[in-house]
Amino acid sequence: MATSNDIRKGLCIEYSNDIFKVIEFLHVKPGKGPAFVRTKLKSVTNGKVIDNTFSAGHKIDEVKVITRKFQYLYDDENGFHFMNNDDFSQLYLNKEMIENSQFMKAGEEVTIILKEADETPLSAELPQSVYLEVVEADPGVKGNTATNALKNAIVETGARVMVPLFIEPGDKIKVSTEDGSYLERVK
Question: Which range marks the domain in which residue 175 is found?
């Protein structure tokens, strides 16, 4: 069992009958009163983010997790199917367990977080960015080039992305999976 002094970014803890991952933390030692740790926790099962404060020395239940690379195969109405590249076993995840799943395309490698004790899947993490082909883009309006004008585009996975006016259907672009923003055009 760990204490609040062991809190660090990426640590998985059991809290309030769920498993949370520490996204941000700050150790605070005010001039008056006891020290505490202010945290931002993200549920690995449903993706909700909560703010929580732990007093100094508070006992926390650390959850041991392991990560493995899986290949995304396909999705159905309930969730996603993945294959382990080492032993070719398949794994199923509910749609709620993956954030920004609209940027996943078949054959892409994702990192799945598993609980070490019984290897139950907790969540999946996409790469920081993905390369996608633009299948449909609004026409660029001439005269809108004085500023960083953007237009709607639909990529091969069906996701909508705001892109610069010079992007045309058939172009490959790099997209951030964190916020769905356009990063660059790929040659």
Answer: 128-183
The CATH number given to whatever domain includes residue 102 is 2.40.50.140
Overall number of domains in the chain: 3
Dihedral sign (CA 159, 97, 174, 150): positive
Residues 6 or more apart whose CB falls under 8 angstroms from that of 138 comprise 151, 152, 153
99 and 148: one domain? Answer: no
- 115, 138: one domain: no
* Closest to 21 measured CA to CA, from 49, 54, 43: 43
Identify whether the C-beta of residue 87 lies closer than 8 Å to the C-beta of residue 34. Answer: no
pLDDT by residue, tens only, the chain of 187 residues: 788 888 888 788 888 888 888 889 999 888 888 889 999 998 877 778 899 999 888 898 888 888 889 999 988 888 889 998 888 888 888 877 777 888 888 888 998 888 888 888 877 888 888 999 999 988 876 665 666 788 889 999 888 999 888 888 999 999 998 888 899 988 8
* Of 60, 64, 14, 62, residue with least CA distance to 37: 60
Exposed e or buried b per residue across 139-170, where buried means at least 16 C-beta atoms within 10 angstroms of its C-beta: ebeeeeeeeeebbebbbebebebebbbebeee
Do 143 and 178 sit in the same domain of this protein?
Answer: yes
Are residues 75 and 112 both part of a single domain? yes
